[in-house]
């Protein structure tokens, strides 16, 4: 073999070795007995989420194989990824000293499935479950977010949130807090005993439209069932509710402005029962639109005007 051929073979081997070192996994694995020194494969899983996020390719998946906590501090998700626990496993992401999950980058697609997000009583208190300040897309399915001092999920950017078949309970503030042009779709979800209530859309900033739709869900307890609020003249906040139940809140339906901006709550095919106020429509630019197919009963009072609509 000539010296030139030997040189070619050596260069090819070096290139292949380099590609192998840089290759990332479509599916990375975590296990209770894993090690972050491992390559995060099924045969050699990692232990904590940051290691798996480094190993997985953008658009890939991280699978939790055992019931365990998989972080020691706030997990910053900086790529498109699906994070899920296999059926029958309690995959836990804890909030300690901050949110459990932080998404600050834009244009990501992040999904959480079959995950429990909660604090640890023996560690410094966390804040919220998921805090998204980047204009990305977040999907939460079959998850539990509970017992956090602040919001269950907070989206403070012009991103999109989809929550389905999940439970958000006993959080100190809202189950879902939306600001700065966020858009949310909430379906078949229970929001129970959260201090601030269920879903809030807030127009604090100009030229933003913040919206939420809630369907086939239950909101029980707390300050407001659904809230649309603005205090900026060019901001719009809107929440629509259908086929849902809101009970035992202070204000079941709250559409309010500080006298400027546009706030709107729409409700249809829903049960509004046993609240202190069935609705609060207050401030110039606020509207409460109600289809005639709602059941509103057992509430102590109302504030403002409900505008009836005929089903079409």
Distance between the termini: 83 Å
Strand percentage: over 45%
What would you report as the Rg, rounded to the nearest angstrom?
23 Å
Mean pLDDT: 92
Q: How many strands in all?
A: 32
* Dominant shape: elongated
Given the helix and strand composition, which structural class is it? Answer: mainly beta
Low-confidence stretches: 1-22
The order of strands across the largest sheet is: 1-2-5-8-11-14-17-20-23-26-29-32
Biggest sheet, open or closed, and with what strands and sense? Answer: 12 strands, parallel
Helix content: under 10%
- Helical segment tally? 2
Write a structural description:
The protein is mainly β and 312 residues long. It has a domain at 151-312. Helices cover 9% and strands 48% of the residues. The protein has two helices and 32 strands. The strands form three sheets. The protein has a twelve-stranded parallel sheet with strand order 1-2-5-8-11-14-17-20-23-26-29-32. Strands 3-6-9-12-15-18-21-24-27-30 form a ten-stranded parallel sheet, with no helix packed on it. β1 (25-30), α2 (49-55) and β2 form a beta-alpha-beta unit. The relative contact order is 0.07. Residues 1-22 have low confidence and may be disordered.
List the main descriptive attributes of the protein structure presented here.
single chain; 312 residues; mainly beta; twelve-stranded parallel sheet; 2 helices; 32 strands; 9% helix; elongated; disordered N terminus
